[in-house]
Amino acid sequence: MTIDPADVRDLLGHPGVSRTVHVRGSLDGLGTEVATLKTDEPVEGDLLLESVVEGILATGTLGGTFALRCARCLKEFEQPLSVDVHELFSISPEPDDDDVYPLGTQGWLDPEQMVRDAFGLELPFSPLHSPDCQGLCSVCGGDRNLGECPGDHVETDPRWADLELVLHDLEERT
Ligand SMILES: [Zn+2]
Ligand SMILES: [Zn+2]
């Protein structure tokens, strides 16, 4: 499933006229190693489409769900997210105008790229499953949130290892 385009022929050329459309669908392949937009939960919301001289102005709030992996303890979790959009779609955008989305020549508005861009900007680089996540122990790998690490590791400095051997020898001789 993707996001269906909306027929906006009734709006084009009638500045001031507006209409709300309900958008619902899913987007594939949006994500990073630690954060992806779930495809089995819909991206959904209402978009107000306003006819303006330049084309169609699309405004609204869309909800979706991210599947995330905690950057500290690697726990997988989900987080709902909503993004606000406010974008212009134009029949004849300037080739170098990145802020404007093209309208289909037949009078269809395809919101998919706009939705992709909006959620893409919200992908977290370093998600935390909880703001006070304790993370994994660097010595034993135990999850500190679950008390898996005893927390009493004696951290031996490798520079002292030889000295410990010498001391051990001395103890054996006496
Ligand atoms: Zn965590
Ligand atoms: Zn540990």
Key traits:
single chain; 174 residues; alpha+beta; two-stranded antiparallel sheet; 8 strands; 14% helix; rod-shaped; binds zinc ion
What features would you describe in this structure?
- This protein is an alpha+beta fold.
- The chain contains 2 helices and 8 strands.
- The chain has helices at 112-122, 161-173, and strands at residues 6-7, 18-25, 35-37, 43-52, 55-69, 76-90, 100-102, 108-109.
- The strands form 2 sheets. Strands 2, 3, 4, 5, 6 and 7 form a 6-stranded mixed beta sheet that branches. A two-stranded antiparallel ribbon has the order 1-8.
- Strand 4 and strand 5 form a beta hairpin.
- The mean pLDDT is 90.
- It binds zinc ion (2 copies).
- Residues 137, 139-140, 142, 149, 153 line the site of one zinc ion.
Low-confidence stretches: none
Number of helices: 2
- Which range best describes the helical content: under 10%, 10-25%, 25-40%, 40-55%, 55-70% or over 70%? 10-25%
Residue share in β-strands: 25-35%
Output the helix-strand order. Answer: EEEEEEEEHH
Major sheet size, sense and barrel closure: 6 strands, mixed
What bound compounds does this protein have?
A: zinc ion
Number of strands: 8
Shape descriptor: rod-shaped
Overall pLDDT metric: 90
State the distance separating the first and last CA atoms: 79 Å
Radius of gyration, CA atoms, in whole angstroms: 27 Å
Question: From the helix content, strand content and strand pairing, which structural class follows?
Answer: alpha+beta
